[in-house]
Fold each of these.
Amino acid sequence: MTTPPATSGFDPDLFDRILVVDFGAQYAQLIARRVREAHVYSEIVPHTITAAEVAERSPAGIILSGGPKSVHVDGAPQLDPAIYDLGVPVLGICYGAQLVASQLGGEVSRTGRGEYGRTELRTVGTGGVLLGDGLPEVRPVWMSHFDSIVTPPDGFVVTATTDDAPVAALEDPQRRIMGVQFHPEVVHTANGQDVFTRFLYKVCGCRPNWTMTSIIETAVDAVRAQVGTGRVICGLSGGVDSAVAAALVHKAIGSQLTCVFVDTGLLRKGEAEQVVETFRRSQGIELIHVQASDRFFQKLAGITEPETKRKAIGEQFIRVFEEASGGITDARFLVQGTLYPDVIESGTSEAARIKSHHNVGGLPDDMEFELIEPLRALFKDEVRRVGEELGLPPDIVWRQPFPGPGLGVRIIGEVTPDKVATLQEADAIVREEIRRAGLEREIWQAFAVLPDIRTVGVMGDERTYAYPIVIRAVTSEDAMTADWARLPYDLLERMSNRIINEVPGVNRIAYDITSKPPGTIEWE
Ligand code: XMP
C-alpha cells in the first residue's frame, strides 16, 4: 500500500499572511474567518510555534486567540517571548491580550469580578488606532473573562475601559503590539470587524488580495503546475466539497479531468439526476455515471448493525469506484475535497471517533495516486462562494451536509429498496417544506429517519399498522455539537400532514428533540 503524498494545489506565499495563534478556545477559527472576510489570508497555528517558525512564514501580523485558561494557573499556555521581538505586529484577544500584558511586564490580576456577555466599552483618550478615529466612544462588546489586566506593560497606553476591566484595550504604537479584552470576532460586538480591518490595513499594511477571483486564479495555476498534461480522476458524491473541487479542477485542466459518480441507490430523491445534469450537461465535464444500487442492496441484505452497515457500504463503494476508474489507465492524480478545518483537525487534535465516518467518495487506500486538494486552504463558506463564482447551481452549493453512507444510516434495521423509496419521499417533503419556510441556510441539517418499528393508527375507518417517520432538524456550527431546531409548530404540522397523506406506508410522525451530545445528529 502506498500512502499518496498530500500536495496542496495552492500556494499561500502569494498572499499577505496573518497567523492566528490558537490558545485552545473555539474562537481561533472564527478569528481566522473574520480576517479572511476582510480579504486577507489567515492561517491557524498552535501556540507552541517558535519565533523561528513564525519568521519562516514571514507573516504580516499575528493574532493571539482567546483561551479557556487563566494566565495564572500552572501550565497556562505561553507564547515564545522572542516572537514579540520579531518586529511583526501582534494583536492579542482576551486571553491573548492578558498574555501580552503579563509576558511584557504588565500586571494581570484576579479582580474577583469577571465579565461575561454584553458589556459597555468606553474608549480612553484617542481610543488608539484600533478603537478611535470616528468610532463611537461608548459601544456594546462581548466579554468572557475572569482575570483582568490592571497595569499595562511599559510603552503601552490604555485605549478603552469597562466598569470591571480597567484595561479593556491597550496599544504600544512603537512596537505595534496591542490587545483587546473583548471578543471583536463575535457578531454581538459592535464595530468588531473594524478592529480587524484597522489591525490588518493600518497596523500590518496588508493588501486586500484574498478575494474569490484571486483564490480561483491561484488554485487554477497551482493545479496546472502540478498536473501538467496528466490525467485526473475525481469522485463526485453529490456534496458541495467534491462538486466545487471538480469544477475548479475542470476550469484548470478541462478535458484532462474525468469524474466518477457512483449511484449507490442510497441518495436523496432526485439527487443522482441532478449530479448528472449539472456536471455532464451544464459544466461539460466528462462523467462516468455508475448505476450500482442493485449491488449495494445485495451487500446490505440482512445487515442491521450500524457499523457493519457503514463498513459494507464503504467497501462496496471502493470496489465500484475502482472498477469504474480502473478503465482510465493513465490517470495519475486524484482530486480530494479536503477543507481547511479537516487540515487543522488532523494537525492539532485527536477527536474521539464515535462513528467510523467512512467518507464514501473518499480515497481507496490501496490505489496509487497523487492527490490534488484545491480546497485545502478554504473554510466551508469560502468553498460555497467559490462554487457560486464557478457557476454551480445554488441547490448544490448550498446543499446541507449528507453522510457518505447516505440513507443507509437513516433506515434503522435492514436496508431494502422499498424502505429507501419510502424514506426518499418523506425526506423530500421535509426538505421542501424547510426550503419553502426560508430556513434552509439557518438549519444545519433537516431530514427524515425511518425506524424499524410499526405502530397502530386509524385512517378513514380503517385500522393501520405502518411505519412512523422521525423528523430530525438541527442547528450547528460544525457538527461537533448540535441543538434540535425549534421549528414552528405550523411547519411541523404541514410536514406531518403531507408525509402521512402523500407517502404510502407511513401513519405517524415524531419530531426528535435531542441535542448532540447526548444524541448524535444521525440516528445510526
Ligand atoms: P453525527 O451523527 O456523528 O454526525 O452527529 C455528524 C456529521 O457527520 C455526518 N455523518 C457522516 N458523514 N460519513 C460521512 O461522510 C458517515 O458515515 C457519517 N455519519 C455521520 C452527519 O450527517 C453530520 O453532518
Note: The longest helix spans residues 306-326.
Amino acid sequence: MNIGFIGLGNMGGPMAANLAKAGHAVTGFDLTAPCPEGVTRADSAAAAAKGADVVITMLPNGAILRAVAADVIPAMQAGAVLCDCSTVDVDSARAVAEQAAAAGLGALDAPVSGGTGGATNGTLTFMVGGTEAAFATVKPLFDIMGQKAVHCGDAGAGQSAKICNNMILGVTMIATCEAFALADKLGLDRGKMFDVVSTSSGASWSINAYCPAPGVGPTTPADNGYKPGFAAELMLKDLRLSQQAADSADADTPMGQLATALYTQFVEAENGRGMDFSAMLPRFEARGRQD
Ligand code: NAD
C-alpha cells in the first residue's frame, strides 16, 4: 500500500518504520521529528497524503489533529482512508470523521495502548471506531503495527474505549497506591500485601501487572526509580479527556473526577511531571491524613 504518515514522534516514528520494514511504501511528514529509516520524507502533510491509500496521523492532541485533517483531506484521493491513531477528544474524532466522509473518504479513530515499547516491537493494541469497510482496509496495517485491533463501533468509539479504559486505570492505580501506603502505616509487609491482594478481590492490572511498590511483584517502573513507563502527565491528559467526554455526555464520574484532580496536583504542583504514573505511591507514603 501507499501510506502517508503524519506525526513521527515517539510513537509515530517506530510505527511508520515497522510499516516500511513490512514492505509498504511510506511517505512521512513531521514538523520537527526526523524520518525513520525506510520512510520517504515529504515537504508537507498534504504532500505526504497525496496518492496514499491510507493516511495515518499520530499527533499530540485534537486541535492539531483538526488542523492537520483540514490540510490533508482535500489532498487525499477518493476512497482512501484517514486513520488517526492519536489519543484525542471524542468530539474531534467525530468531527474529523464527518469531514472525511463528506469528501468521499473513509475515516477511523484508532488510538493505541502499549506505549513506545509496543510501537517499537509492533505489539500495540488498537481500539477502533469507524465503518466496517474502512476497518477492513486498514486491518492489515494494524496487524503489522500491533498484536490486536478491536473494532469498537462507529466514529468516536475507539477514543471512547480508550478514555474509559484509562479512567479505570487512573482510579485503580490511585486506589492501589493509597492502600499500599495505608498497609505500610499498619505495619503490613509489602510482599504479603501483594500476595494477598493480587489473588483476592482487590486485584487489578494496576497491582498484578504494574505493581507500584518496588521489589514486589513483577518488574515495573517502580523498580527503576519510577522512570516512565507511562508518565503521570500522559495519564493526566487521558483523565482530562475522560472528564471532557463525561461533561459533553452528561455522565456522572466522581471517581474519574477525583483521579483527575489528584493527578493534576501531582503533575502541576508536586514534581510529578516526568515520573511514572505509579509514583503516586511515594507521594501517598510521604503524606499524613488530610482533613
Ligand atoms: P510526540 O510528541 O513524541 O509526537 C508527536 C509528533 O507530532 C511530534 O513529533 C510533533 O513534531 C508532531 N507534530 C505536531 N504537530 C504537527 C503538525 N501540525 N504536522 C506534523 N507533525 C506534527 O508524542 P507521542 O508520544 O508520539 O504521542 C502521540 C500520540 O499518541 C498522543 O496523542 C499520545 O497521547 C498518544 N499515545 C502516546 C503513548 C506514549 O506512551 N507515548 C501511548 C499511547 C498513546
Note: The chain has a mean pLDDT of 97.
